[in-house]
User: Fold these one by one.
Assistant:
Number 1:
Amino acid sequence: MAFLTGIELRRRIASGSLEIHSLDPQQPFNVDSQVTEDSIDLRLAPIGLVLKAGIESLDYLSDNLDYAYNIVEIKASGMDLQPMRPFLTQTLEAICFPDELVGLVVTRSTFARLGIMANCLAPKFAAGIRWAFPLQLVNLNSVPVRIYPYAPVAQLMVSDTSGESVGYRGKYQDAYAPTAPRIGDRERESLTSANPLAVNRTFHIINRDLRSHVGTDSVPASPAADPGDAVAGTSGFMEPVTRRCRALTAAAVSIVCLVAAFAVALTLRVVFGGPLSPLEKVTAMVVLATIAVSVGTTAQLLRRARPQEHRGGR
C-alpha cells in the first residue's frame, strides 16, 4: 500500500479531487500547517459521547444505543479523559474521498506518547465516503489526561486504489456528528435468525480441530455432545488427526501381518524343502526390510495418536 506524499496531497486538494473543509468556518482547514510530508493532520472536534452512569451492558444487536450515551462538550479549558473510558468523538475536518482513494487514520505520536489511542483499532477511511472521521479516544493510563478542542489528534494517510472502484454506500455516509454504534437491518436480521444448532455445530467443528492439534489436556472439554459427525460434507482437514492416525495404524498393522505370513512361508520352505534359491534369498531380505519399516511406521503413528503434552508443562 503506497501512500501519497505531501506534495501530491496538496496537488489533489488544490485540484478538488480530495475535498477537506472544517465544520466550523471560523476554524478553517489550513493546507500549509496541516498537510505534512506524507499525511494530513486532523483536529479534535469539541464534542463527543460518553457512556451514561449506570449502564451495565450494551447489546450489539440493539436498534437504538443512543439512549446509552450523553453528549459532552470539550470546553476551551479542556476536558479530563478518564482512564479506560472510551470517548466517542470525531474530527473537526469533514472529508470527501473520491471512489479512487482510500485512507488510513492513525494516532499522532504526541497523543500516543501520552497513552491515548485515538481510533480504537478502526483506522479505515473508506473509498468514496463523505464524513467527519469518527474517533474513539481511549486513555490507557491509570490517571486522567486533559485534552483540548482543535488539537491535532490524528493523521490521515491517503492511497490510490487499484482495480475497478466502488465507493462507500454504508450507513455512515454524510455523518458529520458523533454517532452511537449501530448495525444495519440486514445484519441484525441475519444474526437474530441464527440457528442455535448450526452455531453449536460450528463450535464443535472448530473445537474438535483445535483439540486434535494442541492436545485434549490443554483444551477445555466441550459443553455438549459432539454433533459434528452428523454434519455432511465436513472438510477433510477438519477431521481429527487422531482418527486419521488410527486408520493409518490399522492399515500398517494389516501390511505387517501379510508380510509376516510370507516370512513364515519362507521359513517353512527352508525347514522342509531344503536351501533357498537366490531369488528366494533376495525375497526374504526384502520381506525382513519391509517388516522393519512397517513396525517403525506403526510405532510412529501410535505416538502421533496420543494427546500432545501441554507445552507449558515441559
Number 2:
Amino acid sequence: MHVAMKIVRSIIDHLPRFSTVLVACDSSTDPRYLIETLEERGLSILGPAYTKDHALTLAAHSRADLALVQVQPGEDDDGQALAGQLQQTWGIPALLIQATA
C-alpha cells in the first residue's frame, strides 16, 4: 500500500463512524479507491468534487468533518488554495493527498 494511503487510513480510522468527508480531486484523478476506503469505514461522502467551485458549493451546503483534496504531483497550488479556503471559510480541516496512478 502507498505510504500516503497508509497515513490517510490512519487518520480516517480515528474519525467517528458517520463522519462526513468531502472528497475533491481534478478531472484526471479517479477517486473510487479512496471513496471505497472511506465508505468501508462507515463514513459519509460529499462528492467527489472535480472542480474548486464544486467543492466550495458542497462545503457551503453540507457540513463536512474533513476534506481530502487529491492533487497531482507538481500541481498542488489549486489544492492548497482550496484546502485553505475550506479551513478559513467553513472551519473544515483539509488534507492534501497526492493522487497515484
Number 3:
Amino acid sequence: MSVRKQQRAPQLRAVQTKAAILRAAAEVFDEFGFSGASISKIMKRADVTQGGMYFHFSSKEELAYAVMVGQGEGLEFPEGEDGLQHLVDITLYLAEQLQHNPVLRAGVRLAVEQGEFGLRDDVAYQAWVLEFRQQLRFARAKGELQPDVDDHELAWVLVSSFTGAQLFSQASTGRADLPQRIASLWRYLLPAVASDDTRGALRLSLPPKEGAGTGASAQRVGERADAESGSESERRG
C-alpha cells in the first residue's frame, strides 16, 4: 500500500466516525431533547468509543451546537425554476421533512432549546433567512412580487412565521398537519406580496414525485380562493 493510501485510510475513518456521531446525536436529541440526551446514549447509538467521541466533540454542548447549525445538511430541495413558486415548494418540502427527518427535526428543536445549553444564537435562523431571500430576489427579478415588498423583511417574516407554525403544529398534532398549516400561511400571505398575475398561477402543494400517481390535482391559489368564495356564498344563502 502506498504512503498516500495509508494516510487516506485514517482520514476516511475519521470522517465516517464524525458523520456517524452527528447522525446518532441528531436522533437522540430529536427523541429526548437537550436535557434528556447524554453522551453515553449518543455513543451507544453511534457505536463509537469514548475516545472516538471526544476526538471530535469535547462536550454535549459542542455536539448540540453542531447539530443545530447543520440542520439543513443533506436536504434535497424540490427541483424547479428559482422564484416564488420554488420558495413555496421549499417551505412545503421542509414541512414534510419535519415529519420524519431526524437531522432537521433535531436542529430545529435545539434552536428552540438552545437556552438550556447556554446559547442565544440566531445563526440557524439567519441561514434560512438567506435561503429564502435568495429565492425572493429571483422572484423580484421576474416581476413576481408587489413593488413595495422588501425581500429581506419578507424573508425574516417567513422564517418567523414558519417557526411559529411548526411549533404550534408540533404541540397540537405532532406536526401531522404542518404541510396544511404552511399552505394556509401562504394562502393568506400571497395576496399581500405576490403580483396579481403570479398569484393566480401558484400551487400550494408539492408536485407529484416521479413515478407516483397524480392523485388529487394541485390546487392553485386563485382556484382555491374561488372555491372558498363559492362555499361561503352557499352558506349565506
Number 4:
Amino acid sequence: MPKQKWNDDKIKLVLKQMPYIKDERSPEFIFRTIQMKKKSERKSRRIMPVLATVCTLMLLFVISQSFFDSNREDSFKRESKMADNSAEMKNKSYDIAETAESENYDMTDEQGERLTTSLIPSAIYEDEVGKQELLTYPIPDKNVQVIVPVSILVENPNKLSRFDLYVENVKKVIGVNKQLSSYFPISPEMFAYDLKDDYIEVNVKQGISNFGSHSEDFFNTMVQQQLQTIGAKKMEFYTDGKLGAVLGNREETSIEYKPLENRAYFLLENDEQDDQALYVPWEKPYDTIENAFDAMENNIDTHGLSASIPDTIDIDKVSKDESKGELVVHLSNESKMEEDQKTLHAIESILLTAKDFKYSTVKFENTNVKEVGGFELTKELDVPVAANKVDIEQ
C-alpha cells in the first residue's frame, strides 16, 4: 500500500468530511466543570505532601521505636552482662580470698607444724638455770628396766632446803612422760633427812617386794642419783624403826654416796611419738670415753635402749685436754651430719657422755653442717648440766 503524503489542505479536507458534533453543554456548565477540576487538582496537590509527611513521621516513629527497643535490649544485655561479670568477679574475689585464707591457714599450720617438730635440745644447760633450782629424779622406765634421769627447774621463793624442795616436787614429775613408770620404788616421801650428820633415813613399813630382781647397778643408780641431787653423803634403810630393809631380793642397811661418772648415754626406745626422746646413762661405767662412744653406736636390746650415735656419724678419733676439760671429736670423711632429730640426739648424747667423763666443752671437727638445733658446730660447745628436761606446773 502506497504511503500517503499529508499537508494542511488535505487535513482540512478530511476534517470537513467528518460528521458534525455539537456540544450541547452550556458555556456556564463547562466553566464550572473546569473550575471544579482545577480545585480538585489543587486539593490533591496539597494533600499529597501532607500524606507524605504523615507517612514519613509514622515511618520515623516505627524506626525510632525499633531503635529504642534495640538499644533497650542492648542496654539490658549490657546490664545483665555487667551483673554477670560483677557476680563472676565477686565469686572470683571470694575464691581468691578463700584460697588466700586457705593458703594462709596452710602456711600457719605448716609454721605450727615446723615449730612443733623443730629441733629443740632436751638437756638442760647452765645458761638456762639462772636463779632456779635444778632437781633430777631417777625414774624407772615403764618396763622398769633402766633408770631415766628426769630433770626440772623450779623456783624457790620460800628458800627451802634442797631436801625439802626435792620432796615437795616429786609428785610433779610422776607421769610427765608415757615412757616412764608411774611407780617410784624409793620415793622421797619415805625420806627423813638428818641435817646434822648429812644422811637420809629411808623408813620402810614393810619390804618392797615389787622392786623386782634388778641388778646391783640398777639399784645403786637410783640411790646415788638421789644422794647427788640432795647433796647427802649416805642413805640408811629402816623397817619399823630397825636398821635394815628388804628391797626386792636384797636386804640393805646403808649406801654411801659415790659420784655417778664415766657412763655412756643411750636413747630409750620410744613407742610414743608425741613424747620427747629420753637420754639414759648405762648403769655400768666405761674405762675410756672412746669405749663409751663405741658402745653408743649399738643398741642394748635387753634393756630397750637404742644407739645414740647413728650410722651417719663416724667418730674417727678424739683429742683430749683433760687439764682444760676440753674434748675434740674428729669425724671421718664418711660422716654425714644432717639437720635432723637423729643428729641432734647424737650431739646431746656425746655432750652428756663428755660431762660424765668430766669434760666441760666439746668441739666437733670435719662436720658438713654448721648448725643443728641451735648448736653452732664451728665453736666449742658447753656440756649440759643435766639430761631430760621436763616442764612442770609451779
